[in-house]
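S.,

Sequence below, as promised.
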Amino acid sequence: MHGTTSHAGDADAIVPYPENAASLPGRAPRSGLVTLRDGSHVGFADIARYTSPRWSRHGDTLACGALMGAVAEDANLGDVAGLGGLEQGVNPGQSSTPCDPLPSVRSMRPARQQMLTILAAFSFFESRFAEDAADRKRAVDYLATGLAAENDDVTVRLPEARRTG
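The prediction came back faster than expected:
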């Protein structure tokens, strides 16, 4: 997580936001976090555009059914293979169980969640790799203030050094 910007949905039922993504900036001080209000875990995947908003109120509902059918009833995140560890933003020792409870909010539409993710990722990469210093600065400024200013369902936390470019 050294010098990166991560993104997360605060209505993620599979890897709960409060115990995982919300603490990333503290665990990796040179990193930032873009949070999508009512963003789900599955909403970041292309398949969600075709299933989530049509068949359920929350984007993680179908995935939670499959996930919980594959793990023990008393499992925590540390017991779920493939979710990763602290380096990937997953706290394997957390006390909550994936998908229990499923968030009661209607999750963000997957197409919007993916568009906002693309904007955040593009801005991050441009802030690091654009050839022109002015382009890098514009990307830093957009990521630090513009993205959230244009979208009231986005919050951005960046370390001070990244906000200044």
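Strands lie at 5-9, 32-36, 154-157.

Coffee later?
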